[in-house]
Amino acid sequence: MLGFEKGTINVIRLSITFMLQFFAYMSQEFIQEPLIETISRNTNDEIDSHAGYNSFAIMYFFFTISCLFVTPVVERISAKWSMVLGILTYMIFQAGFLNLNPISLYISSGLLGVGSALTWIGQGKYLTENCTGSTIERNSSMMWVILKLSLLSGGIFLLYSFQHQTLIEVVQNETINYITILFLSIYFLALLNTLLLPLPAYQPKNRKIESFGGTLASTFKIMSTIPMSLLSIIFIYAGFSRSFWIAIYPTCIKFTSKLGENTTKLLAMSCISSGIGQVSSGFLMAIIGKNARKIGRDVILLIAVIIHLFVFFMIFLHFPIDAPLKTTDQVGLFAPSIELAMLSSLFLGFGDAIIQTQIYSFLCDGYSKESSHAFALFKFYSAASSTLAFFLSKYFTLPMHLALYSIFAVFSAFSAILAQRKYFYKIRHFQPDCIEIYTVDKK
């Protein structure tokens, strides 16, 4: 396939699974809170208007806890079968929207949290076992580009769906049921593609399978090291960043009536803008490839943080204080505009993709033989901060959100600089013969 080695071909096939899976999930996630708020008004509050935020908080809470305990499962049943089980939980969650009620929503959200842990830790393990030190930047960026095509295509789908109708009309004419069935069909294609994934190209040789207790002990041992403690601050910010651009900021757009009559259509445009930012960032990282080491992961991540801080400031200036909480006809210090809202979405996505790809590079290089443990900790910290963000979303005004995220953005930049220059200045990644050549200072 295009002259790529087996490992890269496997990564492309993995990326196709995630592109399909997250076309469905991220399209749903982007409209979830506004959709449930609309259903609540349409059914005389049979479901809480903020049940979407509650669902996110429950899902990320179970995701957080599961990240510490599913690693032994991933190690025993393999990355592939972990992802298969994970996709099944996504399908169960999606099916609940055919007959939405609080009990099934919250139970399936918890189940989805466990499944997400299996999915993402399995993905990190499979990616690591199909890369070498010379291909990790290219492969992780390539995977990110293909994955984020789901966001771009999902936004186009939402734009088409809401071109001539609002969320209220979609709920009242039951179009939402057809959308749900479509998403379930796409999940099935992702499941089928995952079942057909081949064995990884570069599995470590003579690796003993740890016991459940041994795997947990290894995870907590890595967790307690200084390098992982520094990376954890970046992970926490990554969780805040994702929760903001994927759910909280789109909700601000939907609830800011000064942006226009059909703000549901603007949700789709925001999704497309975020997708363009994510994909273009991934392309840029793929082009840079191994040169990212010369530039420095810390410098690249610092650039992403500066971009985000500027966007946060612009959002603060133009959006109403209460935009995350309810429909409002207020404005910020300046009147918001559609162009500014879309540019903000684009650069939020652009910066987030840079941060995510550099995290993958840190982990695949520094923890190649403990990939399940390292990716579990990444998802643990990022999910914990996302849980907190969604829990606070029912109470926090926009400036409170932006202040919290800005503080952690600055901390993450300093952590990246210290981690790269003191601990991750060497490469530690198994090569095709799976013999460890370099080491990272993990003291």
From TrEMBL:
Domain of life: Eukaryota
Location relative to the cell: Membrane
GO CC terms, sorted: membrane
Sorted UniProt keywords: Membrane, Transmembrane, Transmembrane helix
Pfam family, one: UNC-93
UniProt cross-references to InterPro entries, sorted A to Z: Ion_channel_UNC-93 (IPR010291), MFS_trans_sf (IPR036259), UNC-93-like_regulator (IPR051617)
Subcellular location, principal: membrane
Membrane topology (UniProt): Multi-pass membrane protein
Transmembrane segments: 12-31, 51-74, 81-97, 103-121, 142-163, 175-199, 220-240, 266-287, 299-321, 333-355, 376-396, 402-419
Family according to the record: Belongs to the unc-93 family.
Name by which UniProt lists this protein: Uncharacterized protein
